[in-house]
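Here is one chain, start to finish.
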Amino acid sequence: MIQAWNKANTALLSSFFLFLISLYLHLHFPSTLWTDGMLMVSEAALVGGVADWFAVTALFRKPLGFPYHTAILPRRRDSFIQAIVVMVQKEFFSRRKIFRHIEKIHLIPMMEAFLHKRETEEQLTGTVLHFIRATFLRKKNKKAIAYLSARIKKLLLQEDPSELMYRFDVLSRSNAWDQKALARIAVLLAQEVSTEETRQSIRETLAELEREKIGDGFLSRLLEVINTVNLDEGTELIQRHTCNLLNELGRDHSPLQENALALLHDCLSDLRQDAELLQVVRDLQERLAQELPLDETLARLFHDLRKHFQMDLKREVDPIAEHMPAFYTHLQTIFHVEYQHMLTLVEERPELQKIITKVLYDLLARSALHAQTLVGVIVGNVLSRLTDEELNHLIYDKVEEDLLWIRINGSLVGGCIGFILFVCMSLFS
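Its structure:
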């Protein structure tokens, strides 16, 4: 609905009140120059404001129910929509303008800027991986399995043990594995501490400590009688405080948990400098490279991927990334190197740039001509689905400020004309 009250309505109402005041003064002070002038100016301002209000309102609806040549936009909506469609097609998307703008486009710099974006590389890499999944994974290829097995062994052996431990530390931090593991351990320990068996064990330990300190004679029985040493209360207190401590340890980002994680990572950092541990890790790498059944595992993995490929297409999970993360990472590295090589060729080979430019210009011209018709159809369909009220909103919201000033200017211009007429009448009367 068009805005019910605005500054134009305020100006019109002000003109009306000014007219009433001028009329009152004119009736009480007849034949007075200033009252006559004020009445004529206010009368002309009111007439101008009402006339412009009527004209503006008649564009969208029937002012005061007046039926003749009003509600112009709803009544002529089909012609209006068709005019907009023609304007969009012929003025905004004319063949001459399309080709003139296409000729001004510097495609090579734009393409280079586009290709340098990380998102572009990721999209192209994803497309290549899709074709690999659709072809390579459906075939049994012993050579590929042997190659991948050799590459995995090589990658495993060339990793520095200290660097390997560092990556594990970084991965545990970035993926919050350390936090999750500590929280899980805390929950399990809290459950174990809360059991009756643990309670009984704590009580037995306290009782043993009591016997070691004061013996098992008269003094011990006396203290128990007067409730100076209450083993049950002590057991409950220890059990409760231990559970609270473990709950605090398992709570995310608690001070105790943060301190424990910092201590854990400090220990891992120190272990990276331990020569004996590094040698153990190195021996483990070599043993894994020699004894791991990579060929059999890869063959079975490929078989499972082929078996479930069709089902995986309906999922949002990449089967290669899910089941073969190392191979997936290696593929991404290869794609990144080749992608950078392609960028270098595009930037440094002028003959290649000419070929690419010609192809892109041809594609743009064909697409733009097709879009000329398509845009017109889309605009026509969108506007046709709008109700009369929605169409009024669409137009009114875009030109509201200008329409309001038309009405305000009507009052101002009317008042000025009234003043000029009054001056002329006064001079020639």
